[in-house]
Amino acid sequence: MATTRRLSRATLASTVGTALEWYDFSLYGTAAALVLPHVFFPGGDPAVAVLASLATFAVGFFARPIGGVVIGLLGDRFGRRQMLFVTLLLMAASSTLIGCLPTYQQVGVWAPIMLVVLRVLQGLGAGGEYAGAMLLSAEHATQARRGLNAAVPSAGNALGALLATGVYFVVQAVVPHEAFLAWGWRIPFLLSVVLAVAAFVIRLRVSESPEFTGAGAQAVPVRDRFRDVFRLGGRRIPLAMLMSIAPNVLSYLPSVYALTYLSATVGAPEWIGLVGIIIANLLKLVTIPVAGWLCDRFGGRLIMIIGSVAGAVLFYPFFWLLDTGTPLAVWAGLVMIFTLCCDLTLASQATMLSTLFDVRVRYTSVTFSREITGAVVGGTIPFVAAALTAAFDGLPWLVALYCSVLCLVCAVATAFLPRNRPVAAEQVAPGAIAATHH
């Protein structure tokens, strides 16, 4: 019974902390699609402004692998719990400062430069956040419940995105349009400092991972520890990178680019897309735990392949539903891709990554494989989709084909992932990893 309580406390605290922290990262995606082009990239061509704004969204993803590897290396040395405070500080500070930035009209080109710098800091924190929360939850769990517990922090991401979208929607609805562009957009960003305090208090109640503690941290030089990631991971590393493609496609195409597409191409009111994202994220609070349970029941490999193939097929009807501009159709499309297909891949990704690598280099291995794919695919997909749509005279079919191919690549890579688990930490002498360097 004590184990059950300890597990619940670790998972709940990790998830709620992630929700409050992921509020920052999600808020930027919404603002990049809808308001930042007007504030930081004004110009004669609205399409160019949108592309410039989405490019800054991508910058945060390019910083995530760097932050992920650095935080992962430290997390494998000093523990998962300590690093979650570092990521919290980075994301909260950068988001709050974004809310204080002067606009392009006030300081010219310095405004987007400062925005990019803060977005980089935000990306550095995000690079180690989700992996740390996921591993801390999974490593507290029993083997029978590992999929469920590994998946639940993804619901924290959804809760944070839900909170960000909801706050943005409320502020936009209450503040007149001109005032919103002048100062109202800052309010959601400034709230980050309040949420950071709450997340800090919650994370104080999280104990360190028993698997990490049992493995015994070794004072191995950073270069040697990073080498161990590839020595112990082998082909798991590149296959895990490819396996992480679909979760990124199914997350950021509908949650970021779809808002731009609905507003700029379809001509639908902004509230339709925002409400759709809110609905989809609300449902995630149920579908992600269910998907985690399915991973425990049928295995993460099968669930990932099902979610990836379903996404590849359904991107075509997804854009058809968006093109109607009708609220119910748009919301159905967002739920179909962003909730149902995406959550199957998110839960299975967390389940597999939490057991795929040796515990002594697990944090670094997860952040390396997950965040590089996030940068290359997740960070660029809104920009690439906008460019493909513009090149195809506003038609989305080339975007749908691009996304479908990426999802199928993910499914194939997942099928080739090794079935055998690496040697468990308790089966290895505590000094073994250090001994390889003498």
Report what the structure shows.
By secondary structure, the chain is mostly helical. It has a single domain, classed as Growth Hormone, Chain: A (Up-down Bundle), CATH 1.20.1250.20. The protein is built from 21 helices and no strands. It has helices at residues 2-34, 36-40, 46-78, 80-98, 104-107, 110-140, 146-174, 177-184, 186-190, 192-203, 210-215, 222-233, 236-243, 245-266, 270-298, 300-324, 327-356, 362-378, 381-391, 397-415, 432-435. The longest helix has 33 residues, at 2-34. The radius of gyration is 21 Å and the shape is globular. The N and C termini lie far apart (44 Å).
CATH uppermost class = Mainly Alpha
Subunit arrangement of the protein: single chain
> Shape, please?
globular
CATH architecture: Up-down Bundle
Head-to-tail CA distance between termini: 44 Å
Which structural class should the secondary elements be placed in?
mainly alpha
Approximately what portion of the residues adopt beta-strand conformation?
A: under 5%
Helix-strand topology string? HHHHHHHHHHHHHHHHHHHHH
CATH superfamily, by name, is MFS general substrate transporter like domains
Radius of gyration, in Å, reads 21 Å
**Amount of helix:** over 70%
The total tally of domains equals 1
Total DSSP helices: 21
- Average pLDDT figure: 84
Domain Major facilitator superfamily (MFS) profile: 10-422
Transmembrane segments: 21-41, 47-71, 83-104, 110-136, 148-171, 183-202, 237-259, 271-295, 302-322, 328-351, 372-391, 397-417
InterPro entries: MFS_dom (IPR020846), MFS_sugar_transport-like (IPR005828), MFS_trans_sf (IPR036259), Sugar_transporter_CS (IPR005829)
Pfam families: Sugar_tr (PF00083)
